[in-house]
What we know:
By secondary structure, the protein is an alpha+beta fold. The chain has two domains: 4-228, P-loop containing nucleotide triphosphate hydrolases (Rossmann fold, 3-Layer(aba) Sandwich), CATH 3.40.50.300; 240-356, CATH 2.40.50.100. Helices cover 24% and strands 33% of the residues. The strands form four sheets. A six-stranded mixed β-sheet has the order 6-7-8-3-9-10, sandwiched between helices. Strands 13-12-11-14-20 form a five-stranded antiparallel β-sheet, with no helix packed on it. A five-stranded antiparallel β-sheet has the order 15-19-16-17-18, with no helix packed on it. The radius of gyration is 25 Å and the shape is elongated. The structure holds adenosine-5'-diphosphate and magnesium ion. Residues 42-43 line the site of magnesium ion.
Amino acid sequence: MFKLALRNLTKTYGDVTAVNQVTLDIQEGEFVSLLGPSGCGKTTTLRMIAGFIAPTDGIIEMDGQVLSSPKAMMPPERRQMSMIFQSYAIWPNMTVAENVGFGLKLRKLPAEEIKRRTADILEVVHMGQLAGRYPAELSGGQQQRVALARSIVVKPSILLLDEPLSNLDANLREEMRFEIRRLHDEFRITTVYVTHDQGEAMVTSDRIAVMNAGRIEQVDDPYTLYNKPRTRFVAGFIGRTNFLEGRRERDAVVFDGFTLHTDAFAGPAGDGSGAVTLSVRPQSMKLHGNAPGNPDGRCVIQGKVVERAYLGEHWDYGIAPNGSGVQLRVTALPIEVHDVGAAVWVEFDPAQVAVIA
Length: 357
Ligand SMILES: Nc1ncnc2c1ncn2[C@@H]1O[C@H](COP(=O)(O)OP(=O)(O)O)[C@@H](O)[C@H]1O
Ligand SMILES: [Mg+2]
C-alpha cells in the first residue's frame, strides 16, 4: 500500500486545465518533488493533496483510504498534514518557542511534553539559542527554520512544501536545501516538495516528478532523470543539453554532416520514419586536439571550435562538426584549452546519451 496515491487527478477552471490526469504513487517515508515551470500545476496539485481544492476528476488516497474525489472530500484539518508556503508566515506576536509549540498546544498535549518536544526540535534546526526571540528579530533563513520546526514537531502524516525557499537569497537557498534533506533523513516524514528549481529538487528528493502543462512527463530518481530524460521537455528542463536530430540507417544514425556508427540508440522509431532525437549533455562529451586513438565503441565527431567562454569552473565551447549546420555545446575543464578555429574531436560514450521520445 502507498502512503499517498494520486489517481488521474484533474483540476479544471473553466477552459484552463490546471492539472491533467496526474497519477503518482508515493511510498511511506519518501521525499518526492513536483518540479516544473511556473503555471504547470504544481501548487494546484499540492493544494488538492492538502484538501483545500476539490478535484474535478480522479481521486487521492492516503494509506489506502480515499481522501478526495469529485464526490467527497475529507476536510484539510482531518488529514493530519503540515504545509509550508513560500511566505512561511510564522506568527509575529509569538516567540520562536511559542510558534513551534502552538500546534502541540492545539492538540492539547501536556505542557511538559510541549516544552520537551519544542526544545528538541529547536535543537535539531539549530535554533535552540533563539527560542525566546520574536520573528522580527530573525533572519529569513532562521524564520524558515522555525517554519520547518513548527510543521515537523506535530509529526504530520505528510509534509507539503510549496517553494519554501524562494524568498531566501541564493546562498541561503543552497544551504537550506541540504538542511531540508537532513531533516528528512532524521524524521523520514513522507514529503511532497514543490519547486521550479531543478537543483533544489535534485538535492532534496528521492524521486522527482517533472510537470509540464498540468501533466507529469517523467518520474524518476535525480540520477536517472538527468541521465535518461525521456522527453525533450524533461531533458531541457533538467540542465543544459544538446539535441541531435538524426535518422536511423541499419547500424548507424545519420545526422546533418556526420554519422554515428552504433547500435546503441536502438529502440522504437516513433513515427516509423526512422527519425530519432538524441540528448547529449555538454559535460558528457570530451574534446581532443588530435583524433582519439581507439574509441572502443565510443562516438567521435570531428569539427572545429566556433566559440568559447571561460566560466572559471569550466570552459563552455561551441563546436561545429565539419560540414554540418549543427552546433554542439561542450564543457571542458579549465586546463583543456582549444582556440577558436582549432580542429577538435568530440568523443562521447553512447551510454551517456538519452533517446528522446
Ligand atoms: N483559482 C484559479 N482560477 C483559475 N485558474 C487557476 C486558478 N488556480 C490556478 N489556475 C491556473 O492553473 C494553472 C496552474 O497553476 P498553479 O498550480 O498555481 O501552477 P504552479 O504552482 O506550477 O506555478 C495556471 O495556468 C494558473 O493560472
Ligand atoms: Mg505555485
